Amino acid sequence: MNNPFRGLLVALLFPVLALAAEPPAASSTSEAKRPPGYAVASAHPLATDAGLEILAQGGNAFDAAVAVSAALAVVEPTGSGLGGGGFWMIHREFDDLDLVVDGREVAPISATGDMYLDRDGEPVAELSRNGPLASGIPGEPAALVHIARVFGELPLAQLLAPAIRLAQDGFPVDEKLAGAIIDHVDRFSPAALAVFAPNGTPLKAGDRLVQPDLAQTLRRFAQGGRDAFYGGETGARMLAGVRRDGGIWQQKDLEAYRIVERKPIVFLAGPYRVTVPPLPSAGGIAFQQVFQILGRKHWPPNDPVLARHEMIEAMRRVYRDRAAWLGDPAFVEVPVEKLLSRDYTDALADGIELARATPSIELEPPNETLREGDTTSHLSIIDAEGNRVSATLSINLGFGSGYMAPGTGYFLNNEMDDFSAKPLAPNAYGLIGTKANVIAPHKRMLSSMTPLMIEGPGGVAVLGTPGGSRIISMSLLASLAYIYGYSPQDIVKLGRYHHQFLPDTVVYEPGAFSQAEIDGLRKLGHQLSESARYYGNMQIVVWDRKARTLSAVSDPRGIGAGRVVMQAPPNTQAGGQGRAIAADR
Ligand code: DON
Prior knowledge:
Structural class: alpha+beta
Number of strands: 21
Largest sheet: 8 strands, antiparallel
Radius of gyration: 22 Å
Shape: globular
Bound molecules: 6-diazenyl-5-OXO-L-norleucine
Strand order of the largest sheet: 6-3-2-10-9-1-20-21
Strand content: 15-25%
């Protein structure tokens, strides 16, 4: 089989993680202080182009991030949109500011802990996944306005212009979108059917997708900002639709929505500085824990089976902690300091046995008495000043809840399924949780989205991916590969594997493990399950300070594009390396 995705060549890796943590060395004189141009990678070529258009007009990375997010909402409606949310990780170069704009959805004020349970107290997946009862209050519009106002340089209307144009004039449906429409059309509400299956026939690849209602919504948003989405005509239509069709939102939910600016988690791995999102994303805590566990183990060992075994065991343990402890910090006290302490992660590392897989059931299970790729999207941007944005955006499952309020043009999310409908009941990704992540009014549901940045001696990487619960494991493997010197083109090609505590199974992409590794891992007691599909859709931008180059690479599993524009001398270098390898799904 001609498999494009290969395993990590662990034997060649230098154990950087075992080095004492020390800050990145100050850049030497031979290193560039500024990138030689700008670069954008996103899940859709038209969205990448929207970002380049804004950068060419003099916008900065933050302006471009708004434009790309809005364009993704139009051209990749299965993954993200105005009816959803996300995390925008921002680095501002002039004052070295790192922060996360948390535009995560919140539960409506009338939400209750048992709202998705039947009379016997069992979760009903249908309720938390389909229709407007499944929708949290959207955060993306508030986040875009905030980013444009506080960090951008151009007016919101200018940033939204490419998205409005794409919605108004339309664009050709790609194969991936056409396939997703077929998969989800049965869940669509009438307003969504009118757009995606006009006269009852689902749009096919090559058909033009025109979204006049969405264009109007975006126009009102461009003129009126936040109030023109959470109020005005759009707000009124959204609320009327949701309430008529089974949702529980109230006017005050829309008025009350606020983004939160959060301090990222920053930690050192040898000379690398890793910047990852804090709660309510679970990614940052899991990342730091895995790095510390692997550091304690002097990972990787020379034996590739053992290297994978240790990585899987580390994943198992941090996903257990995710299930047991993590939730919205405004609602639950999460022992973050303890979870990230060396004593704690050393104990986790020391509990990993070299000779066998630890059955998840043998680890202290999370329980109530414990303290109390085709969906979602990503963009990575670096501008010529060195500003950067890594953002993961979502409406959760494909096309979110499948619900579009009449006259609005965008899908509402089904992010409420990221809560634990009931402690220890698995959600759509098989993730379990405890009281820390049960539903409460205005609470943010725990997320796996992990937009991140890594700064090392040689440069900077900005990356992230969709993929539900697997986001964290994919991003980890990619980050380690970057640290170990892999090129962005090779990073996106690496085969992926994942363990999330429960189910007690290692899921791996075809080709991620050699036969010897499969045999070796089985012998250690791991349950292995080859994934039926390649998963994830990683977008990476890398600035190599020494070589003075920029690369922008989009995952070959998707249809996205990475593009670089060199500024001196003026010269456009079509990146798009991510498209050089045929996606095999
Ligand atoms: O926030 C989360 O963790 C999920 N709603 C992300 C969903 C996702 O990545 C779907 N992708 N395939």
